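--- STAGE predict ---
source: upstream dedup step, 1 unique chain passed
mode: sequence only
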Amino acid sequence: MPYEQISETDLKGVFKIQPKVFTDARGYYSPTLVVSEFEEATRINFNLIQIATSFNSEKGVFRGLHYQASPYTQGKLVMATEGSVLDIVLDIRKNSSTFGKHITEILTAKKQNQLWIPPGFAHGYLALENNTRFTYFVTDGVYSPQNEKGVNIFDPMLEIDLPLSNSEIKLSDKDQLLPSLSNIAKEDLL
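--- STAGE serialize ---
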């Protein structure tokens, strides 16, 4: 098996994944994704439609908490491919017993660890180092700008423990205007 571990988190359907990392004096090799093994371990049909990368030149860049509203929902396998991030997954499934709850996980290029985030969750990450690269393996729906939604990372009701002060976190203009979870339109919840 190409994975050291695949385990479900406290948020049903969200998985932590640790591929095997083979190291020697030259560096390392890691099987990032073996679809058949991933599907067998998670019971998820992995229909890859896009691989995307974002680059963050400075520590403190935050991207998220984003999601795609129905019918353009997406699943994402995510990882830091350079540097490290604090990854945040927020349950926005309106009928979920863990609605409004979140998990955080530090993802690093060195460890090659990953998270699987299915539809029904908002997602974001905070760059913990300069020159951090983050990769998304996206399934299912095609990106739809008019269906891109989000939750404000600074929503006090979320109680997300961030390792940087609000003034050290760099948000896009668009992400600064995201609503709190309680202000999201009920039809946009998944």
